Amino acid sequence: MIEIDDLTKRHGRRTVLHDVGFTARPGRVTGFLGPNGAGKSSTLRVLLGLDRADAGTALIGGTPYRRLRRPLHTVGAVLDGSGAHRSRTGRAHLAWVARSNGIPRPRVAEVLEQVGLTGAGRVRSYSTGMGQRLGIATALLGDPAVLVLDEPLNGLDPEGIRWLRRFLRARAAEGRTVLLSSHVMAEVAATADDLVVIHAGRVVARGTVEQVTAGHASLEDAFFALVEPC
């Protein structure tokens, strides 16, 4: 489970997160939505131990990320692509990550097959979508109970988008926690069970997809009603 409670983050005199709080539960896909600059990335960076909060807590399985004994075995994250060196193959990149985290080498072939990259060459030849798949493969190496994905749909073609939707639903069906940040409203509506909407550093809505979209024709309509000034 992901538990974020009263999270506050300041950059100088500017407060970018104001008492942000929500829960992403096992067995469900939670969509994390907000316009650019709303605070999504700041929230995820604090959650994953990349930034420190000025107040509040962000816990994964009841523990701050920085205190996890085996982070890759607990949470897999995709924030800024794969992070792989362009001269390496995807397989070599994954083998290095696996070795540095005490993960058996056969796991590399398993995750490459899961994301459809078996036989792919050097990272420099990858399309944007293939880079996204390699990032997801890296996140899966430790077979984590929690997945945190920031804009994983970028660069995916229609087949890739359908694959990712089915993949995330299958992970949730296994009892895992999935937190999905994306601007692709229709796909979030088709994939997520629960939604959190953040605007100007504050949570403006949270609940099931049905609860958040109640009274609106679509998730897109509900989103703009929440984040656009009256």
Automatic annotation (TrEMBL):
SUPFAM superfamilies, alphabetized: P-loop containing nucleoside triphosphate hydrolases
Keyword Metal-binding: no
InterPro entries the record matches: AAA+_ATPase, ABC_transporter-like_ATP-bd, P-loop_NTPase
SMART domains, alphabetized: AAA
Keywords: ATP-binding, Nucleotide-binding, Transport
Pfam families assigned to the protein according to its UniProt record, in alphabetical order: ABC_tran
ABC transporter domain: residues covered: 2-225
UniProt record similarity statement: Belongs to the ABC transporter superfamily.
Protein name as catalogued: ABC transporter domain-containing protein
Organism in which the protein naturally occurs: Saccharothrix mutabilis subsp. mutabilis
